[in-house]
């Protein structure tokens, strides 16, 4: 009798596929029960409840002619909230809104939390609307950081100062401070050196502006000029040299010995020769022919020669963007030329009647930038030395500045 037996390999394969089928059926049944529609809806609802509200903001730049009422309406601030804001502002803090102010409308979800009116980098007005209405001015703290820089003239003071990291406005201030002694166009030489300690203002880690110069030193043609900032009890903020003298220079109100003023500063004067209204932008000092004319202050000759109706004329460029003009001259000091340095009281020319003049006199003008001022009434720059009672305090500050500069030099040489 022939018997029938299954192969061991076939039996193993049957058992294997059976086991796989059982596992798949169990997994599908489990997944089907887990994702029942009712539970899916419930889970979605719970997740929605846990989602946080998102902070967001709208920024608006105030335009010419806009007011808060118009802006609030445009930004859909609820009427009730707007009414409460205006009613709260008893001190009229919000009346100072100006074109170009920035307004930040801050939201949590779709609910208005606050409105900040940003006036500048430091000042703003905060309107809180989240709970109770409040309106208050905010001024951020300003931190002044001290910087030290030094350099050598290779091309020009301006370019070489920029190269070592001195800001543009500080460069201009530096030149202004020393402009009483140094002409930064004519006097600068290759190899001249400069050192400066200055401040930069920061708020919340962001730069607000370039601050003041604390200390400045310029070596020009082997001569050293120093300026230390100091708050004098009588004069306020000034810059003084190592001796406590003001870096500004004094001016003579009248540049000659004279008998009387023959014609005052008058923008509506009838011209004695032209017979028409022509501004008289200076003062005429009556004097005899060849009376010596003196430089009103220390400076550099910027013009020598004839100038239309002025006749023979001398112009002197002084510090502080000041210029003086001397006209109707008989003659100039011998060999006087553009670029010459002159000192206060030094003779530069002689009285005459050249140009459009009815008699011998000196016509004298005092310019501040592009504006001609009355030499008799203009407030002349202060040139007072430091208050003697504060000299010790000043010397202590000067010593600290030199110490900081020396430490910086050591750091650079390490």
Describe the protein's architecture and organization.
It is a single chain. By secondary structure, the protein is an alpha+beta fold. It has 3 domains: 55-139, Nuclear Transport Factor 2, Chain: A (Roll); 143-240, Nuclear Transport Factor 2, Chain: A (Roll), CATH 3.10.450.350; 260-373, Glucose Permease (Domain IIA). Helix content is 24%, strand content 34%. Strands 11, 12, 13, 14, 15, 16, 17, 18, 19 and 20 form a 10-stranded antiparallel sheet that branches. A 5-stranded antiparallel sheet has the order 1-2-3-4-5, with no helix packed on it. The longest helix is centred in the first third of the chain and has 27 residues, at 8-34. The radius of gyration is 40 Å and the shape is elongated. The model is unreliable at 1-6 and 30-44 (pLDDT under 50).
CATH class of the largest domain: Mainly Beta
Helix content: 10-25%
Give the domain tally.
Answer: 3
CATH homologous superfamily grouping of the largest domain: Glucose Permease (Domain IIA)
How much of the polypeptide forms β-strand, as a percent range?
25-35%
CATH topology of the largest domain: Glucose Permease (Domain IIA)
Task: Give the gist of this structure.
24% of the residues lie in helices and 34% in strands. The chain is of the alpha+beta class.
Topology:
Elements: H1 8-34, H2 37-50, E1 55-61, H3 68-74, H4 79-88, E2 102-108, E3 111-118, E4 123-128, E5 134-139, E6 143-152, H5 157-163, H6 168-178, E7 193-203, E8 206-220, E9 223-232, E10 236-240, E11 260-263, E12 283-286, E13 292-294, E14 299-307, E15 311-317, E16 322-332, E17 341-342, E18 347-351, E19 361-368, E20 371-373, H7 391-413
Antiparallel strand pairs: 1-2, 2-3, 3-4, 4-5, 6-7, 7-8, 8-9, 9-10, 11-12, 12-19, 13-18, 14-15, 14-17, 15-16, 16-18, 16-19, 19-20
